[in-house]
Design goal:
Blueprint: H1 8-15, H2 31-44, E1 53-57, H3 60-80, H4 85-93, E2 98-101, H5 102-112, E3 124-125, H6 128-149, H7 152-161, H8 168-182, H9 187-203, H10 210-238, H11 248-262, H12 267-274, H13 290-314, H14 318-353, E4 355-356, H15 358-369, E5 370-372, E6 378-380, H16 382-390, E7 393-396, H17 404-414, E8 422-424
Parallel strand pairs: 1-2, 1-7, 3-4, 7-8
Antiparallel strand pairs: 5-6
Helix pairs in contact: 1-2, 2-3, 3-4, 5-15, 6-14, 7-14, 8-14, 9-14, 10-11, 10-13, 12-13, 15-17
């Protein structure tokens, strides 16, 4: 595996030192191989030892494969220089190197620093079915209490979110909101922020904020990119030999219409553009391949579905949307408060049973490593500083799959402008 196999860009990544790096490349471009070669360079040039590196992957197989590739590279170098003492040392240290999944690393941190969060170190990781039973039990008991109390806010929420037959919709909403909160670094703070926004909506004038309108336009632009992909795929299908070429005028008309919509830069412009749409009918096709006709029709149906959803979003006036949001604020606030109570009770049951899921362990890890001051600034705790001194560099494979918690964990270990730890993602 000589250096001449690497491109100039890959060599820049492999040889860069004393800086944080984020490497982006297409699937199959060799990102993981570059990561391994960078580690090999670091440990062979005497910059660090392999057990001073934290290498985080997202599957056990990926961790095992990476450890194996490192072992193979060290063995290959030893064959060329059998007396290299540093290589022999790195070969020994590789056995205890921290090359593992993020879940395994978080479990290790919680077991090492369990005293920081008052957790029994004998906890076990609950399986899916067990956790689901606990979730259902807690939520059933909680909703039963609300039904028995019969307070107006709760009954209004039921009327807003549930069908006449059952409260399945409410159960799904609570669980969905809970999962969304769990994906945040600071779940309770995130839910408090949501609640504060809706309280402001319920107490203020009925008008859309600039932030909301900007978000709506940004969302529209993102789905319009996908809509363009649908049209381009449809046009490509029409152009295949024996394809439904008669459909092309409708697709071309759609594409021109999409360009006009995409040119809208603000909420009013997007609303005008979306609500003046007219779809041309596709011409009848004779003699074309039936499968190609079906595929082209499916792409146009997908495109039309996207536009119709945007018409629902931008179909009402700003005043009407604002009034609807104000009217919905009360039920949403109640939903958020129920979700927060559900999360608290579920957490208590898990601690009593000494059973945690992976999300619990990630949040415990973050609580061990960091806290927030009264102004909301993240403060590194002693455990983060100790780990920051322990590891000279943190490698994160498949960084795009990281959630907010995992990203924050890496960030607090490395520290802001830390003299100890660099990150390679």
């Amino acid at each position: 595996m000589g250096e001449n196999k690497w491109s100039d860009e890959q060599l820049d990544v492999i040889n860069s030192r004393n800086e944080n790096l984020l490497v982006s490349a297409a699937a199959g471009a060799g990102k993981t191989s570059v990561l391994v070669e960078r580690i090999v360079k670091l440990i062979t040039e005497g910059t660090t030892d392999v057990d001073k590196l934290l290498v985080v992957t997202f599957t056990k197989d990926a961790a095992a494969h990476m450890r194996e590739k490192l072992a193979d590279r060290i063995e290959e170098l030893l064959e060329k220089d059998p007396d290299a003492r540093n290589l022999k040392r790195q070969q020994m240290l590789l056995r205890s190197a921290c090359i593992m999944t993020i879940d395994s690393f978080c479990n290790r941190v919680v077991h090492e620093f369990f005293h920081e969060v008052d957790i029994d170190p004998a906890f076990r990781n609950g399986q899916g079915a067990e956790i689901k039973l606990m979730e259902n039990s807690v939520l059933d008991d909680l909703l039963e209490e609300y039904y028995a109390a019969g307070e107006k806010d709760f009954l209004d929420m039921i009327e807003s979110f549930c069908s006449a037959r059952d409260d399945t919709g409410l159960v799904d909403l609570v669980k969905s909101l809970s999962r969304a909160a769990d994906a945040q670094a600071w779940p309770e703070e995130w839910l408090d922020g949501l609640e504060a926004e809706y309280v402001a909506d319920s107490e203020g004038h009925a008008e859309l904020s600039p932030e909301w309108k900007n978000f709506a336009v940004a969302y529209a632009q993102s789905v319009l990119d996908y809509a363009a992909d649908c049209l381009n795929r449809g046009i490509a299908i029409c152009n295949i030999e024996n394809g439904p070429a008669a459909y092309l005028p409708a697709f071309q008309s759609d594409l021109a219409m999409l360009e006009r919509i995409s040119a809208a830069k603000d909420f009013a412009g997007m609303s005008d553009a979306v609500n003046t749409i007219r779809f041309d009918r596709m011409a009848p096709v004779r003699g074309a391949d039936a499968d190609l006709k079906e595929r082209a029709s499916a792409e146009r149906k997908e495109f039309k579905g996207i536009i119709e959803k945007l018409q629902k979003l931008f179909g009402a006036s700003e005043e009407e949307i604002a009034e609807e949001m104000k009217a919905s604020a009360g039920p949403v606030i109640t939903l958020i408060r129920i979700t927060k109570e559900y999360i608290r009770r579920l957490g208590k049951m898990k601690l009593e049973k000494n059973v945690l899921d992976f999300s619990d362990v990630e949040h415990l890890t973050l609580n061990i490593l960091a806290s927030k001051d009264k102004d909301g600034n993240v403060i590194r705790r002693p455990a983060a500083m100790e780990l920051g001194r322990r590891f000279s560099e943190i490698f994160v494979d498949e960084y795009q799959d990281s959630n907010f918690i995992q990203e924050q964990i890496v960030k607090v270990i490395a520290g802001e402008n830390s003299e100890y730890t660099r990150t390679f993602m």
